[in-house]
Amino acid sequence: MKISARNRIKGTVASITRGAVTSHVVLDVGGTPITAAITNEAVDELALKQGETAYAVVKASDVMIGKD
């Protein structure tokens, strides 16, 4: 896989929960879950399956923190 993003996190697909339009894909990264909401079409195109290796690719312009 060649992509320009540098924030790639390798993990194992722990679960895929399909909705009407989007799916929640949970990657297990050393015991820490990372969840991504992607389209059902993307899940199908990637042929994602529980137990296989996949990558979380993070591309964000900023990160915010909030507190009450």
Summarize the structure.
With 68 residues, this protein is mainly β. The protein has 1 helix and 4 strands; from the N terminus they run βββαβ. The protein has one domain (8-57): RNA polymerase II/Efflux pump adaptor protein, barrel-sandwich hybrid domain (OB fold (Dihydrolipoamide Acetyltransferase, E2P)).
Task: Write a structural description.
By secondary structure, the chain is mostly beta strands. The protein has a single domain, classed as Beta Barrel (OB fold (Dihydrolipoamide Acetyltransferase, E2P)). 10% of the residues lie in helices and 47% in strands. It has one helix and four strands. It has a four-stranded antiparallel sheet. The longest helix is centred in the middle third of the chain and has 7 residues, at 40-46. The protein starts with 7 loop residues before the first strand and ends in an 11-residue tail after the last strand. The mean pLDDT is 92.
SSE blueprint and pairings:
Blueprint: E1 8-18, E2 22-29, E3 32-39, H1 40-46, E4 53-57
Antiparallel strand pairs: 1-2, 1-4, 2-3
Keywords: Molybdenum
Protein name: Molybdopterin-binding protein
Domain Mop: 2-67
Order of helices and strands: EEEHE
Proportion of strand residues: over 45%
Count of individual helical segments? 1
- Overall structural domain count: 1
Q: What structural class should be given to the helix and strand makeup?
A: mainly beta
* CATH topology title: OB fold (Dihydrolipoamide Acetyltransferase, E2P)
Unreliable sequence segments? none
How many angstroms does the end-to-end distance come to? 41 Å
Radius of gyration, CA atoms, in whole angstroms: 13 Å
- Give the averaged pLDDT, no decimals: 92
- What is the CATH-assigned architecture? Beta Barrel
Percent of residues in helical segments?
10-25%
Tell me the number of strands.
4
- CATH top level? Mainly Beta
Q: Major sheet, described briefly? A: 4 strands, antiparallel
